[in-house]
Amino acid sequence: MQEEILKLIELQKIDLEVLKIEKSMQEIPQSLKKVQKEKDQLIQKLEDLNHLVEEKKKQKDLFEEELKQEYQRLKSTQSRLIHIRGTREYQLLLREIEEIKKTNKQKEEEILKLMEEIENLEKEKEKLEKEMEKTESLFQEEKQKFDSFCAKLSENKENLLKKREEVAKKIPSNLLRKYEALKQKKGGIGIAPVDNYVCEGCHMAIPPQLYNELQRDNRYYECPHCKRLIYYKKIYIQEDSNQEENKSSLKEASLS
Ligand SMILES: [Zn+2]
User: How far is the centre of ligand 1, averaged over its atoms, from the C-alpha of 7 (Å)?
Assistant: First the structure.
């Protein structure tokens, strides 16, 4: 067993754990996503509603202004009645007054209708705002949960990186550089075990001669397919549940 290979395996294990942590920190949980979406929808709804209320209010103001002018016109038309001598002229003016009154009544009704609409919209707005409050506090709750989860992960990562530094110190720098470069290029895996002819980095079979040599374990070897550093698994890794876990995380990382 070569000590530096052993250290590299340890380093690889740490690096995979760090990678896993980084991935978890980037994955926003479904529960948070869901409430975020609800919040966004509510914001949009409220915005639309506000817009609608503003429009109705503007319309109402306009009608009121028009009505004011029409009242004024009615007043002046009515005052002209006294000065009129001819019957026909008088009749015409009376008809005009009736027309103005009729239009004004319509406008008053429209204003009333608008007021009612605005009132209903305001009620709806109030309801949405209450809903928004609830959603916002739920959102904060979920966010806090995720934040503290991430804080814990960061702490774990920090500890792993400290441990990594210690392990890395014990590896010859040229070997370490090779591993780092491979890890960078090969999806986080720089060194992989070979078991039953198969490189677990790329899942391809290595030639029998190399497989035999690998078992002698007296130099550094690389996979002819993926170029990763390789080692004979049975020498370095005892099959137990712990290593099974390592294997599955290795698989997970190489798939991504
Ligand atoms: Zn390979």
Answer: 20
